[in-house]
Write the structure tokens for this entry.
Amino acid sequence: MTTAPSVSVSTFATSTPRSSPSISHLSPPRTIKFPTFYSNFLNDLSTTVSHAPSRAASILPRATATPSSAASSSTVFHGFCYVVGDNIDTDQIIPAEYLTLVPSNPSEYEKLGSHALVGLPSSYSTRFVESNEMKTKYSIIIAGDNFGCGSSREHAPVALGASGAVAVVAESYARIFFRNSVATGEIYPLESEIRVCDECKTGDVVTIELADGCLINHTTGKEYKLKPIGDAGPVIQAGGIFAYARKTGDFKMLKLVMSYGLARECSHHFYSALG
């Protein structure tokens, strides 16, 4: 085991400055091509998007492509991790009793975050969000297989985002949780190539580098490969599917998404997204 380097840890994930070419940001691609595992993402997307206020976490993209190459951006997350096991369902992420909270209301959005992962069994002795606190000190969640299984409630990724978490690294996801994470832009659902949850402990200091596709555990000195999130990344980075469509002008995407089951609130969110 290598010696863990000295790191500066903030309560929430922060961008780590890195040298990069001095160029202006390039526009994200208009056509989204998701990884093979998520190739059916848009085919059955059926979720709503919350208009959540900005979180305390600072997540800043940095252009890394040269003007002649394809556009790409690098995002780095750094902080404490919270480790959970397999089959963490949406009832454990946010119990049904808190679904009356409305994420578009800033105060209720904050309350929703304070209850994130409160449904975990008593075997989890460390709370994700401490009692009487509104935010978590664990900005990165590391999980096992089938994270986010259960109901289709979009409150699950919203609650995690509202708590101050910025990313989940899991062995695998329930498809609906992945879709909701991308559509709301609340949290990055990243997939590990091996079972990282067995090698990390709650409270370890970790860094995620999206451009390099890796998770570094500074506490143990180990590094793990992450599967590419593909062009789902720019959608999350923009703040969700509606914000992405507004940013890129790709309103054909909005029309497609709305035709696949957003009847409940699509009109409200569509016109709000247009500003």
User: Anything to note?
Assistant: The beta strands are 62-63, 73-74, 76-83, 138-142, 167-170, 188-192, 205-209, 214-217, 222-227. The first strand starts at residue 62 and ends at 63. Confidence is low (pLDDT under 50) at residues 4-73, 259-275. Helices lie at 90-93, 106-114, 155-163, 175-184, 232-238, 241-248, 251-258, 266-274.
